[in-house]
């Protein structure tokens, strides 16, 4: 760190990890990070340890239930929902229980599919169709984000209405997302910068989960799928892509 900076703001896991590998002394404020504990960025959300803290995209289990609810509102006839996740991170038991409980309350059956690399995406979607899934919930992960357009394209090809955790997937052609409000995350990260520059230590500042979300709906995709999104859902959307 020849520039002798006082603090680093790192957006996303790869940049945050690179910054942490480069220095253990300079404070790092991460933004838009996914599962920072598993990624090795912090020891825990409550007690980060080290020189990294900030805001994670991990929004808590209740968000999954909300996403399923919105999907059911958009497509009331849904009865079987495929759940796509990245296998290496594995869906932990608490997440499975949350999805299963939310699905049961909504009268839908979840079907779980895991992928480890991009080539497995091509096999996962035909498997969903064969199992007669009629909608899709896509779990958040850096792998999912990196392949947002491919996943949106495959969902469209297999005529699966889908809800995502990233608005970028909707911009790439996905149907809808209930996602973290990114500008709010950066505003909150700024408070970390202020506290640290005033003397606080990253190790003492708990990592925050997001508190503000946005509903984004792509009407062009809905039309291509032959869906008519209820007006009651559209008026609650933060953004409607025409």
Overview of this structure, please?
The chain is an alpha/beta fold and 242 residues long. The protein folds into two domains: 84 residues, Rossmann fold (3-Layer(aba) Sandwich); 146 residues, 3-Layer(aba) Sandwich (Rossmann fold), CATH 3.40.50. The chain contains ten helices and ten strands. The strands form two sheets. The protein has a seven-stranded mixed sheet, sandwiched between helices. A three-stranded parallel sheet has the order 1-2-3, with helices on both faces. Helix 1 links the parallel strand 1 and strand 2.
Keywords:
40% helix, 242 residues, 3-stranded parallel beta sheet, alpha/beta, Rossmann fold, 2 domains, 10 helices
Task: Set down the secondary structure blueprint.
Layout: E1 8-11, H1 13-22, E2 28-33, E3 52-56, H2 62-74, E4 80-86, H3 93-106, E5 109-115, H4 118-130, E6 135-138, H5 142-146, H6 148-157, E7 162-164, H7 167-171, E8 176-180, H8 182-197, E9 213-218, H9 219-224, H10 231-234, E10 239-241
**Mind summarizing the main beta sheet?**
7 strands, mixed
End-to-end gap: 46 Å
Instruction: Return the average pLDDT rounded to an integer.
Output: 91
Number-wise, the strands total 10
Give a brief description.
By secondary structure, the protein is an alpha/beta fold.
